[in-house]
Amino acid sequence: MQLPHPKPSATVPPVLPAPVRARTDPPPGTPFPAGRPPTGGTTRPGIGFVLVAALALGACQDDGGGRELVPHDGGTLHVVIGGALAHLDPQRVYAVTEANVSRLLTRTLTTFRSVPGAAASEVVGDLATDAGRPSERNQVWDFTLKDDVRWEDGTPVTCADVKYGIQRSFAPQFDDGAKYPGQYLQPNPKPYTGPFTTGGDSAGLRSVECLTSQSIRFHLKQPVGDFGYAVALSVFAPVPATKDTGEAYDRRPYSNGPYKIESATAQELVLTRNPFWHRGTDTVRGAHPDRVVVTWRNDTTAVTASLIDSDGAWADTIAIDRDAAPNFVQQIINDPVLAGRAVIGSTGGVRYFALNTRTLPDLACRQALTYALNKRRLRASLGGFVVGEFATTMLAPQLKSHRAFDLYGSAANPDGDPERALRLLQQAAATGRPCPARIRLAYPNSSDVARAISTVVESYQRIGVEVVRRPYPSQSYYSTGIGDPANGNDMMWAGWVPDWPNGSAVIPPQFDGRNLPRDGSTGNTDYANFNDPRINAMIDEALAESNLERQYRLWGALDEAIQAQAVSIPVFYIKALRMAGANVRNGFIHPQFGQPDLCALYLS
């Protein structure tokens, strides 16, 4: 998943108070855990126990130390994110932060439970009465809409709204959203290009059938055993055709969730209650605050300092997509009160580098870059072990489809193997196809990532490869930065949180070359431009397998086969350490977003 938002009109001062002055860095040798990627420092014995114990005690206590058994309704929850949202149009939402915020506005046929732990990976009916009823060997799926689910003007949500929303995703202008409708649904006899073109199929998308106003049937082009998970994504969300404003819908989508948009400016998004939403039809969203104000600030150090102090509105604030600044982590984990306000957990995601098979076509060259990377220094620059364990696979250990393997020996030697890399470079040169002496490395332009990229530059200096830095604006990095297959970069900073807990939400969107869009498109997620007929056939075999245990094994085998081609360099399995203000309650890392679940939060 990735991230975009409305291009707001007016500019207003931020609602939150100005961040307090940042603290100075701790003395040398202090363990730094936090940030997007981790660091590899050491730590004193007992720190992990202090942090876990404080979290267990602090997350659900009131200021007097007593248990809060019933969530409080009311108040304004402030949410800080690192950069402006690029999209809120459900057919364009695909980044994790967008998806987390969007769930407050947009309901889908199914959705993930809003609870901590493994149960959060379970989908339940949302707009639909259940998680779907498959037939014809998982190639036909039926859903029934709940009664009395309404839009923000009081009109009911119907099958026609669901069908129209899905149809929008086929329009050329929606090429930066999730691709699952086009990949899973049976195609029309003539390629369908969305509801906006004239002279198209008057019946619309024939694979989405409205049996009644409340009953919907999907016809898939191949069996998909976990389609009930796919329709939890907002790309399958309804949109009322009469309210579709085209490009402007991205700035002000119509709501059927607990909140609607009151305003969107250059600094913030303000959500207020949708009067036609009620808990009787929604068993997932707590929707406890009266208002939610989302503000973007890129200064992680200042935000962390303000959340620690928790003065004024900062007491009602949580940072959801940026970890606590590394220089504060020691203070947080050693202070039981602060540790009790930290929201920490594994995300199920993987931080990695994609290697472009177009510009780096030789396997030996890609393997040399894989062996040479010093993962320990890279992780240390971002906070150390707290941000995650070293990764050797693209399927995280939390997934049942995970297979443990380490083809490049980086688990045992996270400092890298420059000697092995140099031998591979020499072998390539001896064949008359030398590896490039200079590579272009793309990354989002933020201070924490730039610091990590410096360690990559040093890694490749050891083997005589020069790194040309290519920073892109963070807001559009995934969509228009590296989302164009013709971006020309050799190596790209990336991260992936599965759309649902299976290899089918990791392998196909990132490595099925048949889904590569044309050059000049945006929203590509196969950053390596990888297209291997053998891998594609293995993907088809895994998707068609109805026995989940066998399917899990197939995805694990695919992960290993892809890693043998060195098209990505997994760096670490992402953990999160997010900070909340003193009044914020019920924070936990939701595996669907790798962030605190906004649906669950309330104020003390």
From TrEMBL:
Residues 8-21 have a biased composition (Low complexity). Signal peptide: none annotated. CDD domains: PBP2_clavulanate_OppA2. It holds the Pfam family SBP_bac_5. Residues 1-43 are annotated as: Disordered. It comes from the Bacteria. Residues 25-36 have a biased composition (Pro residues). InterPro entries: Peptide/Ni-bd, SBP_5, SBP_5_dom. Residues 122-514 form the Solute-binding protein family domain. This is ABC transporter substrate-binding protein.
